[in-house]
Q: What sequence folds into this?
């Protein structure tokens, strides 16, 4: 009777190493896929909310304000989450004047169109990519009853960026970026997935 063959310690270590590498690659790919899926879903959610604000402003003959912000931690500059809300304004004058002078118009809670919407933790909602200051992480603009959009930022396109919290390599450019363009003349929306390797596609 011959002795039963077994695995040597070297062979066991080699198998464990291979399993570890396969798991690392698989989990890394899954994390990247999950991040891209969350950002895409967030872009679709934001676009739907913007379309709702536009349609409501026209049908109800009342200005609808869209507010958004990406929150920062109290202890460091790591962004924690992004959220937005829709608000039915009391009048066009109150809405536009408040934004023109850098104030957010105060309205009764019942004028909020639904609850505040929070995006998944892996998605940011920004005014500029890459964000260079706190002011790039929040903004407000108003859909008017005549179909136009009022923004206090004149001379630049009205855009929102839904971006991955995870950066591409070691620079400050997000790994996944969607740009939502808003035509201020009629409120039309278009969403484009951008290539992080082409900064000119998301620069103003």
A:
């Amino acid at each position: 009777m011959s002795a039963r063959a077994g695995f040597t310690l070297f062979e066991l270590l080699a198998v464990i190493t291979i399993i570890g590498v396969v798991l690392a690659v698989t989990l890394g790919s899954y994390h990247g896929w999950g991040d891209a899926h969350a950002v895409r879903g967030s872009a679709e959610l934001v676009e739907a909310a913007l379309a709702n604000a536009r349609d409501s402003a026209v049908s109800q003959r009342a200005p609808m304000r869209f507010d958004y912000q990406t929150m920062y931690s109290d202890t460091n500059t790591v962004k924690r989450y992004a959220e937005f809300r829709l608000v039915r304004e009391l009048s066009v004058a109150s809405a536009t004047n408040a934004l023109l002078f850098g104030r957010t118009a105060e309205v009764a809670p019942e004028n909020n169109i639904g609850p505040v919407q929070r995006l998944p933790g892996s998605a940011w909602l920004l005014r500029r990519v890459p964000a260079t200051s706190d002011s790039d992480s929040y903004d407000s603009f108003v859909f008017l009853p005549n179909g136009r959009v009022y923004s206090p930022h004149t001379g630049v396109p009205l855009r929102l960026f839904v971006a991955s919290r995870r950066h591409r390599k070691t620079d400050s450019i997000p790994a996944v970026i969607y740009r939502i363009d808003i035509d201020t003349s009629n409120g039309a929306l278009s969403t484009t997935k951008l290539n992080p390797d082409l900064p000119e596609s998301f620069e103003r």
